[in-house]
Amino acid sequence: MGRARAAAVERGPKPRHLQRMATYEFRWPPRQRRVIDMTPDGEFREPPGVPLSSRVLGIAILVAAIAGAVAVAALALYVALALIPVAIAAGVVAYLAYRYRLWRSRRSFGGPRDLSRP
Asked: Which residues of the chain have pLDDT under 50?
């Protein structure tokens, strides 16, 4: 029994999960092995083309992006055109306020006086 106990003490540690992780070589992105595909004549073969479904999906995404951009532009134009009457009304109110102040200044000082001149 003493010999079994001594042998157990002398053995190295069992492989643990963390030790295996430390020795594992992690690469991101995972590398793919390249295959050189040649014909018997010694020429390279062309890689397979893009599938039709992928091309259709790409065109659909492009059309959706263009439609979204047009919608945003239309909304911006609508807001800009809706603000034109508001700007005109603000200008009319400012002009009427200026004319009212001129009228009040003429009345209080007894003569034609322009506020733009001192």
From this structure: 118
pTM for the full model?
A: 0.45
Q: Let me know: does 113 contact 105? Beta carbons within 8 Å.
A: yes
Q: CB–CB of 83/90 below 8 Å? A: no
Taken as a whole, the chain contains a residue count of 118
pLDDT in tens, 35-66: 777 888 878 878 778 899 999 999 999 999 99
Q: What is the DSSP letter of 23?
A: H
40: left (phi over 0), alpha (psi -120 to 50) or beta: alpha
Helix-then-strand count for the chain, H and E: 3, 0
